[in-house]
Give the backbone structure.
Amino acid sequence: MTEYTLNELMAVNVAHQLRDNEMGFIGVGTGGRAFTMAVGLPIVAARLAQLTHAPNFTVQIGTIISPDLKKIPREFTQSTLTSWPTAARIRADDNLDMFVKGKVDVGFISGAQIDQYGNLNITAIGNYIKPKVRLVGCLALPEHQAFAQRTFIITDQNSRTFIEKVDFVTGVGWNVNGKTRKDLNLPGGGPTFVFTDLAIFDFNAEGHRMQVASIHPGVTPSEVQEKTGFPLEFPKNIPVTTVPTAEEIRLIHDEIDPENILLKY
Amino acid sequence: MLNSRILSLEEAAASIPDKSVITMGGFGVFLQPMAMVREMIRQGKKDISLLSVGEAYAGDLLIGGGCVKRIALSSFGFEAVTGRARNFCKAVEQGKVEVEDYSHFSMASRLMAGAMGLPFAAVNSLRGSDLLEKIVYEKKFEKMKSPFSGEEVILLPSANPEIAIIQAQRADSEGNIQVFGPTISIEQQAKASKRVIAIVEEIVPRSTIQSTPSATLLPSLFVDTLVVLPYSAHPMSSYGYYDYDLEHIYTYTNASKTPETWKKYLDEYVYGPSDHFDYLKRIGGLRKIMKLRADPLLGY
């Protein structure tokens, strides 16, 4: 049996959902675990998709479009992005066009809090004006969730992050305060999947509540429910998350991330 | 064209009144006017409102220096290192600084509208977000039906800061400003503002600018004051000139963990240095500068 890490399991499953000729938008991110979730893991998934079933999948990372994923830099900052061979570098406000015009097929996003409708909070925990914990702000999360054709949420799961109601709605999922995406006239396709360290979720057709799509090997349904602050729907026969093939792991280790920069944390 | 006035860093900072609404160019670890921020702290600026996009380092230092009343950014995240912008986060958590949040593109749109002389920007990405509902400091948005399509749109006021402080690579003595690498919202920030102070690494001959006119992001018409100071974005980067200083960024983020270590940081790197060149000595001098210096052929 092929050995793999949890991050590799998640990255491979994200890759399986990417389609040929799509463009994914990845932020620039910070460091540590947040970097892996928001930047490292999506880049591995994108390159893996290119090397397997979706050779023409491409990405926009911050203000650069279609960087050469054969030449992934060792660090991710505005500086290294600047010297990364790429097809285009655009202005910050031109970024908006990419979203508004529906050019972003897949938005890779993450958050500090998430609720059952996929509403995300990256702004403040507690009272907004005088918060218990102040967070990063908004970034492009509202644009991702408003305009991307599909958004993939990648985050760690526990009962503090998966909660009934987020303290601040930075980006809108399927339903906020009883208003649906249709009510709000949001053109994007809404949250499609949530990839966590325990399971993969999607959203049910009726009501768009989060439901279990598959559970990672070795994780129990009760553990998943325990670490979720709202009641989850489980399918009758709960699928086990697809494990990586030997070839997928070889590609990640040998070709995509040989120095283990992208999935380190 | 009208020449920009060339001033020293100290003179340019002295021209920024307390309570000014300012914007600063740059993003992430890239092109933030850090020497100007340090000088503003030294001069004891008070009640500054900063309205920008992703200038978290400049904003965090300005807050740590006690200069800020209100801050409006779309990213308060530090690039390159783990952890939050602590001076900013603590100040907000303790109710010492007023904060306004925007998404990247709602802020970029406000600046773009300001630069184009339009009264407002129409933005549709904020529908349903608490960004619209939890704003307290000023009326920030209005909904209206488009008179053309009938679609409901969200209007945000255009941003017209009093002063833009722009960090750039080079200019000629007239003040034609060239920027290399990502330009983010720098052009819009400058054009939206009533007055522009640009800080450049070096003055180059007019002929150098003339032979590369497409790199001129801001013609001197838009630039009121020019400051010439090498390594003035440090510890941020200036593409083609020098990289960001990760070692110093860690010194900074570690120092911001407690009031005592932060006070020491300010004494060592802000209040202590007799001028910018003394600051450069304290961060490692020529040895550090050679390490950060860009390879002229390969960029960084």
